[in-house]
Amino acid sequence: MANKLKAVVLAAGRSTRMHSEKTKVLHKILGKEIINYLLDSLVACDIAEPDIIVVVGDNHDEIAGSIQRNVVYALQREQLGTAHALLAAAERLAGYDGELLVVVGDNPYITAAALHKLIASHRQGRAQCTLISAVFSDSPPPYGRIIRDARGAILGVIEEKDATPEQRQIREMNASIYLFDSRTVLPLLAGIGNENAKKEYYLTDIIAIMHRKNLKVEAVQADDCAIAIGINDRRDLQAAQDKFNRQIQQRFIIEGGVTILQAETVTIEHDVQIGRDTVIYPCTYLAAGTCIGNFCAIGPFTYLKNVRIADGERVIFEKKEG
């Protein structure tokens, strides 16, 4: 029998450092909402849309209006922490006895490839929980540290604000991506307290509880440390935009035969098509919905959105919106 897999996306919290009333997960990177990057990765892992539960708060209408997928919603009436958020999804999981993937909604770096690696390791290791960790060579972000014993067994996860100076020197970080046995984790959520600096119910505390109960917890090391970094402020948002823009450009250059001059001055959003042997000149912005043919020359100083450029056309000093 094939393994059953559902996913819970913790998306209820609102932005606290974005200087904006907009829900954090709905800030856009290259024209696409953060949460939609994540949902694309979940669907690419063959998780059916109705098997994705998005935990929302008073931002339900805002989130539902931006997600064009047939997902299920669970309401977290008060934002009391990540464990409390997962508990809010329990009703939607009633009677479910398969694998449960739990992720945060503000992380656009979670890829289908990373999730496939996590799922394969979890099934091979027959653990009750497998999480993704990221090892930073220096300057780790202010996230939870993975605590291990002398033999390397995982004892728990300690959040930055609750860590000792020695624990803050640990370079292995929790990426807040977990794959649980649902029958194991859900009954344990009630045992999580809020005796911590933020007075919240941390899902990370489930790891220490599972260890004490002699349940198997494993970690898969991420190939790219960025997977541990969510979007918490405008600086993170800009870094993500720069990273994804470079990835999109490289795909067009390597796979599409496109030439991009002074790439640092060019921005290409998601859902853009560019034909072969087209040249993109400096100071050009190609927004979502733009389709450019073969052998074109675009720019400099050009903005295109939701328009179609035929083969061989030259566009310069233009602003066009379809």
Which descriptors would you attach to this protein?
about 325 residues, alpha/beta, Spore Coat Polysaccharide Biosynthesis Protein SpsA, Chain A, UDP N-Acetylglucosamine Acyltransferase, domain 1, 2 domains, seven-stranded mixed β-sheet, about 25% helix, about 25% strand
Explained architecture:
With 322 residues, this protein is of the alpha/beta class. 24% of the residues lie in helices and 26% in strands. It is built from seven helices and 22 strands. The strands form six sheets. Strands 5-4-1-6-10-7-11 form a seven-stranded mixed beta sheet, with helices on both faces. Strands 12-15-18-21 form a four-stranded parallel beta sheet, with helices on one face. Strands 13-16-19-22 form a four-stranded parallel beta sheet. Helix 2 links the parallel strand 4 and strand 5. The N and C termini lie far apart (49 Å). The model has no long low-confidence stretch (mean pLDDT 93).
